[in-house]
Amino acid sequence: xxxxxxxxxxxxxxxxxxxxxxxxxxxxxxxxxxxxxxxxxxxxxxxxxxxxxxxxxxxxxxxxxxxxxxxxxxxxxxxxxxxxxxxxxxxxxxx
Length: 95
Description:
Structural class: alpha+beta
């Protein structure tokens, strides 16, 4: 694998490795939400949630859609769901 691809993969896992971003993705695994709903659910400020969503969007892990004045966020695709699901399975395995 090329160095650039390895760097990209390492960056992807860094994004998944952040506790707050992972909490956001786990909420979005269940349903589409707006910043205000995420902030309330995770007991964080809207500014903090927006910052995390920006990082997740830059890394193509979440997508957004506008409905009137509201913007709703969801996981970008089934790859993200699979990564989270595989991670869950791995940590729940018996040794």
